[in-house]
Structures are given as structure tokens and as C-alpha cells.
């Protein structure tokens, strides 16, 4: 059967889908503007790549939603809830890999002392320093993502969607990329050739940090680890809440929780042959509670 969530959560998921479609639209316009304003600036190139990478989370979120709604099959008897986990892992891996590459590229530019040149461009019959065009493009690249990120974050927390939260976090922090890029471009204009590469390095460090953090969370999820928080690799409070509830109902037993996308499956490990079937848990994230015979202690 399909997953079942409260109407309020379903409404928020549909709203999140609409926001992700808007994100894709605005990001496509930003990528085009940044591409034509990029010139030879390393900071602009890095910011452009980050904006291009920003397309990945909304696309993966929309794909995961499609898979999440599919019925279980003979080959996939537990359904496709973990499509969100896979999408989160792919997004985190891409961020980490690209962040590492961009950091290496900016460090190489510094070591080789590459001097970027930002010349003039003719617009509407006027000669304008290309740096000002870059600054305007960077300001434009910040405004839509920051607004959308702030709108998506509460939806991500309510629906416990890690892809959506990663996307919202990247969007809301996009002002740092824009600010670093602006400082780098203006620094070149003042003759500080290294400012461009340093700005690119700061942007790439931010990408790498997000990628590594999310990679740790996504790997734990794929390895049937205990449910993690949205913004860190720490265990989510739902583990203690459900474990305490089951401990009161079934003294001497223990619960094992694992995450499948936004949902949680619970295994109640019993220590006697005549245990009663486990009752349902009053939490929309818990989609199944099963019972098995096992040892008391974790090895």
C-alpha cells in the first residue's frame, strides 16, 4: 500500500513541490545570467557552478516524491520510501565532490599566481567595466534563492525531508556566495589579483562543508543507522521517544529504529516466545512496527 501521512503533512509536501518548481525556474534564469556575465573570473565561475549544482536538490526532491508514492512490487516489497534516501545521498556526493574540485582549482590558481583580467563591455552604446555587470549578476543570483530558502525550511522541518532541507539550507545561505563573489570581483578591480581566487576558495569551502555533512547523514541512513537530525549526524530525538514508549509497554524488550526516507521502521526485539503483537505507534513517521526474537544486548 502507499504511505499514509496526515492531511496537513500532505499539504505541506504539495506546497514544497510547487516551491521546488519555482526554484528550478529561477535557477535556470540565474545560471543564464551568470554564464553571460562570468568572464575570466574564478569567483564568478565557482559561483556559477554552485548555482548549477543547486538545480540538483529540487530535481531529486521531485523525483523522490514520484517514487515515494509508488505501490510496493514483488521486487520491492517494502515500497520505494527509500528513494528519498538515495536522492539525498546523490545530492550530498555531488556537493562534496564538486566542492573538493573547486577548492583544488582555486588553490592552484593562487599557487600559479594566475592574474584574472576584467575588461570593459559595451552595453546599449556605453562602455562599462565588466566587473559591475558581474556584481549586478551576483546580486540577482542571491535574491530568489534566499527568499525561497526561507519559505522551504519550515516545510522541510515539518515533513522531515532531508533533500528539501539541504536545498533550503543552500538557498538561505546563498548570500555568502554572492558576497564572496562581489568582494573577489571588486578586489580584482582594485588590483588585488589574489582576491578572485580567495573568494572562489571560500565559496568552494562552503560547498565542501555542506557536502561532507550531508554525506555523513545520508550514509548512516543507507546503512540502516538510527534516524538522524535534519541538520547534523546526531541521532534524532524520535529514537528515545519511541524506545521509551515501547519500553513501558513491553518491559525488558528493546526497540531498533531505522530510517527509510522521511519514514521510520521499528523492530521490537523480544526475549520470550509468547510476547503479544506490538501495537501501532502514534507518530505519522512510523510506517511499520515488527517483532522478532533476539538477544537483550547490542553486540
UniProtKB/TrEMBL annotation:
Main location: membrane
Organism domain of life: Bacteria
A GO CC annotation given for this chain: membrane
Membrane topology (UniProt): Multi-pass membrane protein
Residues passing through the membrane, by range: 21-40, 46-64, 85-104, 124-148
UniProt cross-references to PANTHER family, sorted A to Z: MITOCHONDRIAL METAL TRANSPORTER 1-RELATED
Name this protein carries in UniProt: Cobalt transporter
